[in-house]
Design a protein that fits this description.
By secondary structure, this protein is mainly α. About 60% of the residues lie in helices and about 5% in strands. The chain contains ten helices and four strands, in the order H-H-H-E-E-E-E-H-H-H-H-H-H-H.
Length: about 240
């Protein structure tokens, strides 16, 4: 319902309630369990529900206006347009987009979820036909992390931050065919963080929270705030924003 519809409904309900006997008079005349008592209680409940719905609607509008103004005054530093739907991804990070390891391109999460839903419904990849929608190279087999790692390594060697972050995490955990090498992993993460990759900035903050490195509050807060400033929801939650 629109704001105007809710306001009109609330006004009509208040008028109806004002024109029927008060609860005190109803109790004196017919008792607590009378139909009149139940009718008035139901009217009051419906009025309360509609007033709460109006408050939520107004708060939603207020928050939307604040976010819009914030984006106008301080445009996101790392916003990109999805090449499929052309919608703007305000803050590019692993939680807002899906990366293609062939060419390094990406699509928004919404397009990725739509592809998954259609694929599940049709029984095959109807949208992309198992090929990258950007470079048209065939996707590796699902779960082939070694092939994904090989492709990511190629991008990492070219200095691409998202790939450096990916390879760095694999070295830190000794995963997906990469050797356990904390020194190399941290070096790659820092290289990505120096390029202001929000995912890498958050991982560096976690590293300084005694996850990998010795606790360092100043560095922990520096990397965490940098990631939060770039709109990373994980960093923002950790800061309580």
């Amino acid at each position: 319902e629109t704001e105007q519809q809710l306001r009109e409904k609330i006004a009509a309900q208040k008028t109806t309630i004002a024109n029927i006997p008060s609860l005190r008079n109803i109790l004196l005349e017919t008792g607590l369990a009378s139909p009149e008592t139940k009718v008035r209680a139901q009217l009051i409940k419906e009025l309360s529900d509609n007033e709460e719905q109006l408050e939520l609607l107004l708060e939603s509008k207020r928050v939307t206006a604040v976010v819009r103004l914030q984006d106008e005054l301080h445009p996101p530093e790392n916003s990109e347009d999805c090449p499929i739907c052309l919608e703007t991804i305000k803050h590019v990070n692993c939680m807002t987009m899906t990366r293609f390891y062939c060419c390094g391109g990406f699509t928004c999460t919404k397009c990725s979820e739509e592809r998954k839903a259609k694929g599940k419904e049709e029984g095959f990849d109807e949208m992309y036909r198992d090929k990258c929608p950007l470079c048209r190279e065939e996707f590796p087999n699902e779960g082939d992390y070694k092939e994904l790692g090989t492709r990511a390594l190629e991008h990492s060697n070219k200095g691409r931050a998202w790939a450096q972050m990916h390879i760095g995490l694999n070295h830190l955990g000794g995963m997906n065919g990469f050797s356990l090498d904390e020194k190399k992993g941290l070096k790659l993460l820092k290289q990505a963080a120096d390029q202001r990759d929000s995912d890498a900035l958050l991982e560096m903050a976690l590293a300084y929270s005694e996850k990998t490195l010795k606790w360092d509050e100043s560095k922990y807060m520096y990397y965490l705030k940098e990631a939060a400033d770039l709109g990373h929801p994980g960093a923002q939650r950790m800061l309580g924003l």
